[in-house]
Specification:
Belongs to the glycosyltransferase 32 family. One of its GO terms (cellular component) is small-subunit processome. Keywords: Membrane, Transmembrane, Transmembrane helix. InterPro entries: GlycoTrfase_DXD_sugar-bd_CS (IPR007577), Nucleotide-diphossugar_trans (IPR029044), WD_repeat_DCAF13/WDSOF1 (IPR051733). This is SnoRNA binding protein. The chain is mainly alpha-helical. The protein contains 16 helices and 13 strands. Strand 9 and strand 10 form a beta hairpin. Helix 6 crosses helix 16.
Length: 704
């Protein structure tokens, strides 16, 4: 494997080694699993169209690539027939809008009918894998879906200050995105982001390319077929059948030959699935909201609500189409934040039911917290919701595991093979409840420093992402995520995992037999062993984690903008590049990516000088609480420093300001060069205050 840092050889041992190291050191780093059943995980002005045949041709990149998985023990518990049934159900449901090949190991004898992709030209010959016992298996689907009309999204003079909103109902072609962003074929993050900008119309007023850019269009609308077009679709090819050649004796073949089952586990009984839902293009819906695909972003949080989920929600409001009058017709998003009930630490504490009183207690705490109180404003009640999390109730709500998960209580909190023992037993078998102690790893709720990392909350969040998506649909996002653009076309992509889907049932049963381990890399192993990896699509880091490769010393000859050598650069921007945040602002921060993942750093404030919600008079009461707390902390720190150095203590009083209350004047001085984290926080806050429009030039209407 080459050591060339100009490219990312994703199959290299160096990458595997780094993944293993990052698995241990940066626990929250993990692939984004697109989990769509609405418009939110994992969640878009038609001017010129292009030929719909372009994405029906083959490409040179390997669609079956999957990165190495930590660990080697097999996890499979399903027979080949069950794997085939899962694939057939997902494809029939429209959850496979892709030309990626089905792994030949699945052994499909019939080409599945795929309502989510257009039909290929009649000259197409399906790929076959020959074996002595079979005429072959199908690895491609038979498309019967709507035509795809690819969009030319861009601003036009004189309205070029802001990009256009994505067209409601538009769809992102993941095959096209991977063609430009697959680093196994030496694609740069910098180039990928440019394609994402141009194809998404985010290069408004800055379209410097003058050549034909049709190949960079990756967003399309589905145009339903008329009766004549439907009739013209050829019948699917005939099934393959086992055959015995003249003079040969029939062979006794194990139908599960080649599958590697988990050691010590029995084959699972067949899963039962409901009738696959009908795949419906957005143009055939009565309104923008698809009831089979609810648009919900899920986030999970434990401990006090801080500036981290505060920024995640502000960025959500700044970028997403929440259905206001100024944003036009769209399906209204919801972004539930699921705080854990109390510390959520031991099983003796977890079963606290989410009673009305528990819910009221949660809201009482949220109302008093200056970081969370703004989102309880009536203006946001339809798009941001807070819900309590109770692990016992949540696991009991999953039919696939509700009757068996309690057998794993001793090792319930398992992530990547790391098990937190939160329920120690006495010698007589009785359970001892661990009393809350200051800063112990079991009762800790939230990470205050790098040394007091809250691993248990992270393990819970791994479980929560799959539980929430399986129960309610939607996309799960870590709370250390910042939205950078509208996700409309990602919602339009109906790939698994949809709620109550076949793949979800398989994953929960597999996790149950593997210690309920929901670490992202372990889940990757589940799908790889079951040859279902293409059903749970792993997208390139450039779309959601654009800095990761440069922090690992890859592509440093042509890094993206901004150039981070470590994730801390977001909070402490190096002097060499510290002129960029203020000069470029929001538009200069990984423009084209859908979101940014800042990888923990819960202990680093976004805005050290103004470490409080700066949202204006509407939120003055709770802002004052945060401001006074900050002033006291700074005064205490100054007094401690003075005592250490022997210097005279300076007054902590801020000078009066004739234009705003004295308590709102900045208690500390800004850095001469503001960090990226500070610039983004103040950008989002200015939108809520009414000082600036959002990312798409729309003003917040408080009268709605």
């Amino acid at each position: 494997m080459t050591k060339d840092l100009t490219h990312l050889p994703t199959h290299s041992s160096a990458i595997d080694e780094k993944l293993d190291r990052q698995h241990k050191l940066r626990r929250k780093r993990g692939p984004l699993f697109i989990s769509l059943a609405c418009v939110a995980v994992f969640l878009t002005v038609l001017l010129v169209t292009r030929s719909t045949g372009r994405s029906q041709t083959s490409s040179t990149w390997d669609p079956e690539w999957q990165p190495a998985v930590v660990g080697s023990a097999p996890t499979l518990i399903f027979r080949r027939q069950q794997l085939q049934d899962i694939w057939k159900w997902e494809i029939a449901s429209g959850h496979y809008p892709s030309r990626m090949s089905i792994p030949w190991q699945v052994g499909l004898k019939e080409a599945p009918i795929n309502p989510a992709v257009p039909n290929r030209p009649l000259t197409y010959k399906p790929k076959q894998y020959q074996s002595p016992e079979s005429d072959g298996v199908y690895v491609d689907t038979h498309g019967t879906g709507a035509k795809r009309v690819y969009l030319d999204l861009q601003s036009h003079p004189p309205d070029v200050a802001y990009p256009p909103r994505p067209v409601p109902g538009s769809v992102a072609d993941m095959d096209e995105i991977l063609k430009h962003c697959n680093f196994d074929t030496h694609q740069y993050v910098r180039d990928c982001l440019e394609v994402l900008r141009v194809g998404g119309g985010l290069d408004n007023g800055q379209r410097y390319r003058r050549e034909n850019l049709d190949d960079w269009k990756y967003i399309y609308m589905e145009q339903p077929l008329n009766a004549t077009e439907k009739a013209a679709i050829p019948s699917p090819p005939p099934p393959f059948a086992s055959s015995v050649r003249p003079g040969q004796k029939p062979l006794s073949v194990d139908p599960d030959e080649g599958l590697v089952k988990r050691v010590g586990a029995d084959w699972e009984p067949p899963l039962t699935f409901p009738t696959p839902p009908e795949h419906r293009p957005s143009a055939t819906l009565d309104n923008p909201c698809d009831p089979d695909n609810p648009r919900i972003f899920h986030m999970f949080w434990t401990g006090p609500f801080t500036d981290k989920p505060y920024i995640a929600l502000l960025s959500f409001l700044y970028t997403q189409n929440t259905g206001s009058a100024s944003q036009g017709m769209a399906c209204r998003f919801e972004s539930p934040v699921a705080p854990s009930s109390g510390s959520g630490s031991t099983l003796a504490q977890l079963p606290r039911p989410t009673t009305p009183q528990a819910v009221q207690d949660m809201f009482d705490v949220l109302k008093k917290n200056p970081w969370s109180a703004p989102f309880l404003h009536p203006r946001f009640k339809d798009v941001i919701q807070f819900k309590p999390w109770n692990t016992t109730e949540q696991l009991d709500s999953i039919p696939e595991i509700k009757n068996e998960w309690r057998a794993l209580q001793d090792t319930l909190f398992n992530s990547g093979g790391f098990v937190m023992d939160v329920k120690p037993k006495e010698s007589d078998g009785t359970v001892t409840v661990i009393p809350p102690e200051e800063d112990d790893a079991i009762n800790r709720a939230g990470s205050q420093t790098m040394e007091t990392y809250d691993r248990l909350s992270v393990i819970l969040s791994d479980m929560a992402r799959f539980v929430l998506c399986h129960r309610f649909g939607g996309i799960y996002l870590d709370a250390d995520t910042i939205f950078l653009r509208d996700w409309e076309e990602l919602w339009g992509w109906k790939g698994a995992f949809a709620y109550r889907c076949a793949l979800g049932s398989m994953l929960f049963r597999t996790a149950l037999k593997n210690g309920l381990d929901f670490h992202p890399m372990t889940v990757t192993r589940y799908t790889a062993d079951a040859h279902a990896q293409n059903l749970l699509l792993r997208l390139p880091d450039a779309l959601f984690d654009s800095a990761w490769l440069s922090t690992e010393d890859f592509q440093i000859d042509r890094p993206p903008q901004p150039y981070f050598t470590k994730f801390q650069d977001f909070f402490d921007t190096p002097n060499l590049t510290s002129g960029s945040p203020q000069a470029l602002g929001f538009k200069g921060f990984f423009r084209g990516a859908y979101s940014y993942h800042f990888h923990n750093f819960w202990w680093k404030p976004f805005d050290p000088a103004r470490n409080f919600p700066d949202l204006g008079p509407k939120f003055e009461s709770t802002e004052k609480i945060a401001h006074e707390k900050l002033r006291k902390a700074q005064a205490s720190s100054a007094a401690a420093a003075a005592a250490t150095t022997g210097a005279a203590e300076t007054s902590s009083e801020s000078p009066s300001n004739a234009e705003e209350p004295e308590w709102r004047t900045t208690p500390g001085n800004d850095k001469r060069d503001l960090d990226w984290s500070t610039v983004l926080k103040r950008t989002f806050e200015s939108y809520i205050r009414g000082d600036t429009p959002n990312a798409y030039g729309e003003w917040l209407d408080w009268l709605e």
